[in-house]
Write a structure and sequence with these properties.
This protein has about 210 residues and is of the alpha+beta class. It contains 2 helices and 9 strands, in the order ααβββββββββ. It has a 5-stranded antiparallel beta sheet with strand order 5-2-1-8-9, covered by helices on one side. The chain has a 4-stranded antiparallel beta sheet with strand order 4-3-6-7, with no helix packed on it. It is globular.
Amino acid sequence: MRKGQIFFIIAIVVITLLILLKISLSLTSILENKRFLESGLEIMEFQNVKGETIRTIGISYNLTQNITQNILDFTKFSRGYFDSRTMSYQGILVLSQFPTVSSGANTNMNVTVFNALGTNLQNLNVSFSYDGSSNNVTGVGDLSTISKTFVFNTASTVNYSLIVFYKTAELNSTENITIPVEIGKSKYIGFFDLKLTSDRLSQRDKFARAITLS
């Protein structure tokens, strides 16, 4: 084989390798961009679900519907939607509501705890700082609710605390939720600990909203 032929073959091999390398780098870039875009979309979807969860309170009140039930239904719908996309949507919700407070009169506050953690709660304890009353239950299944009515009596504006302790096979957690009480006001207080997980990223947000109903 002549020297010129050898150089020609080497040049072809080098050019081929450079082309393959460029194609490989392009594919890697495309895959990275795809993953980045998908992650960004998941972040937007998580923020949107959070926003819609909060909006459900106002919409339900304006339509004179059951606020708590609508929030639970929306959370279950969101769980199903993300499940269909092989994503995990989990959380725990503490939903409290009381009617217009009159000075010196007993007021009932309804509290609902919704377990959407994807596992059983081995123990759940909810206590109210007003008088130390509490409710303790065991074996709360996934997508199950526990409800309790607490009573308070105040002659002035005050902040109480709702202390929620729960235990699963993997974790223990205690949440201290502020219950703002004002004379002449009815309020809805929602506490949300939400988490969305996929094979790309995991997002979690813990937040509370107190909304004056009247």
